[in-house]
Specification:
By secondary structure, this protein is an all-alpha fold. The protein is 81% helix and 0% strand. The chain has helices at 2-50, 54-82, 84-102, 108-122, 126-136, 140-172, 176-179, 181-195, 209-232, 237-256, 273-303, 308-314, 316-336, 339-355, 365-391, 399-430, 438-462, 465-478, 483-486. The chain is globular and about 55 Å long. The two termini are 38 Å apart.
């Protein structure tokens, strides 16, 4: 009996330690997720102080998400090789230092540069934290629950950004949105040193410098072309060069990566339809969300004339809906699979964006807040199934890489969403329209509605019986012992 009691105590102690590790990892996700969106509310204040243009404001947001997207894969494999805790702590330190420098930036260029520094640190957090979680929670059911919590925090942190940002900007100025990261980052470092054990992949993959360079060129070229085309002209030498480099980088990735024994992007992952669909779904969903927040800032503060605080509060229904639906979505995924939440997310995001196509300065606020709430429902539903589906069937030895691909797809989506919405708005302005009005505004919301429709279509296809069969085949291909993990999706 004493042995049984001792075993029970040890099990409970182990569970508490695992939950503490989960909390530390989620804290890192919180500050990185907040920083994707919290800056949006501060953009008008930043523009006034530095006299920034629309493209300049786009770069304040996209410089961060672009660097994140470019380095997440490298950070995941680096952690697998040199140690996940070591990489995690380094990321927290760089992110906190970058945040402090952002708060004292003296120009728009300096702010953009320090945002890139933030992103270098941030790239070492999300995929590494997911890898730590995957290797800490070895029981498939417990791991699925932990991943569900992780997915919920993704939605909660990003949705809370505009509300918290509005409060901080109104009370203490735009620089305060960066202060909040410093104490959280320092506390996370202390807790990581105390509770998180070091871990590495049994056999770490080799670095793929060529693949990493090609990813950076591809994402940077596409983003530059979209953001700068309205002001420089589609046929300008700079835009043509950016597009040409992006196309060359894509061709290079497609032809070079499959030939490597240990590529940066293992194309075999994409043999799993659920994984490929989850990746594409993340791009579409976060493009809708990133574009939504950028358009929301232009509309609420630029058209309706709301203060940063009131603009942030206007997004509160979206944040609340996301917070309520995110954990519910995680439970649904654990019990019934990813299909129902993904279908609900696609319908809600599409419907909300369609409802917003006709808004202007005189639209009753309630007619704006209802679609905001519906959008929040959709966004709250989408994160848990993306995360769970992306890591299902992937071997733990490559957990950092698999998590990095899932996280990269989110940041790519957010980057493209801001770039596309900004380009549409800038194009309308260049043709004599106000900053945000009429047909130009409707085109923005129609574009975001298309993203929602893609989430719906991918949700149906990626959870079909054919998709599940492909995941099982891929699990066996990657790891003969991975079949059980793939069946978690059922």
């Amino acid at each position: 009996m004493a042995a049984v009691a001792q075993g029970g105590i040890e099990d409970e102690h182990g569970r508490r330690r695992r939950l503490t590790i989960l909390a530390v990892c989620c804290a890192s996700l919180l500050i990185v997720g907040l920083d994707v969106t919290i800056v949006n509310v501060a953009l008008p204040s930043i523009a006034r102080e530095f006299k920034g243009s629309i493209s300049g404001l786009q770069w304040v947001v996209d410089a961060y998400t672009l660097v994140l997207a470019s380095l997440l894969l490298l950070s995941g494999s680096t952690a697998d090789r040199f140690g996940r805790r070591r990489t995690f702590i380094t990321g927290l330190a760089i992110f906190s230092a970058g945040s402090l420098l952002c708060s004292v930036a003296g120009s728009l260029g300096m702010l953009i540069a320090f945002r890139m520094m933030q992103a270098v640190g941030g790239s070492m957090l999300n995929p590494v934290a997911m890898s730590i979680i995957t290797n800490t929670f070895t029981d498939p059911r417990e791991r699925a629950q932990a991943v569900g919590v992780w997915g919920a925090v993704v939605g909660v942190s990003i949705a809370l950004g505009p509300v918290l940002g509005g409060l901080l900007v109104t009370s203490s100025g735009w620089r305060s949105v960066f202060w909040i990261n410093v104490p959280v980052g320092l506390a996370a470092i202390a807790l990581t040193l105390r509770f998180v054990p070091e871990s590495r992949a049994p056999r770490a993959r080799r670095f793929d410098a060529v693949g990493q360079l090609l990813v950076i060129v591809l994402l940077a070229g596409v983003t530059f072309a979209i953001i700068e085309a309205p002001s420089r002209g589609i046929g300008s030498p700079e835009i043509l060069l950016a597009v040409g480099l992006a196309i060359a980088a894509l061709i290079g990735l497609v032809t070079y990566e499959p030939r490597r024994e240990e590529p940066l992007i293992d194309v075999r992952f994409l043999h799993s339809i659920p994984f490929a669909s989850a990746t594409a779904t993340a791009v579409a969903a976060f493009a809708a969300f990133g574009g939504f927040l950028f358009a929301n800032t232009l509309y609420l503060q630029g058209v309706r004339g709301l203060s940063p605080l009131h603009a942030g509060l206007a997004t509160l229904p979206l944040a609340v809906a996301t917070m309520v639906l995110a954990p519910i979505s995680g439970r649904i995924v654990g019990r019934r699979g990813a299909r129902l939440p993904l279908i609900g997310a696609g319908i809600a995001i599409t419907a909300a964006c369609i409802a917003l196509t006709g808004i202007d300065a005189k639209t009753p606020l309630i007619e704006v807040l209802i679609p905001y709430t519906v959008f929040g429902i959709g966004f709250g539903l989408v994160n848990a199934p993306i995360t769970n589906t992306a890591v299902s069937g992937m071997p733990r030895a490559q957990a950092g890489v698999a998590a990095g691909i899932a996280s990269t797809s989110r940041q790519v989506g957010a980057t493209l969403g801001v770039a596309i919405v900004g380009a549409l708005v800038a194009g309308a302005v260049n043709h004599g329209a106000p900053t945000y009005s009429g047909t130009g505004a409707s085109i923005v919301w129609i574009a975001l509605a298309v993203c929602g429709a893609l989430v719906l279509a991918l949700g149906i296809y990626g959870t079909s019986s054919r998709a599940r069969a492909s995941a099982e085949r891929t699990a066996i291909e990657l790891n003969p012992e991975g079949l059980e993990a793939a069946q978690v999706m059922r």
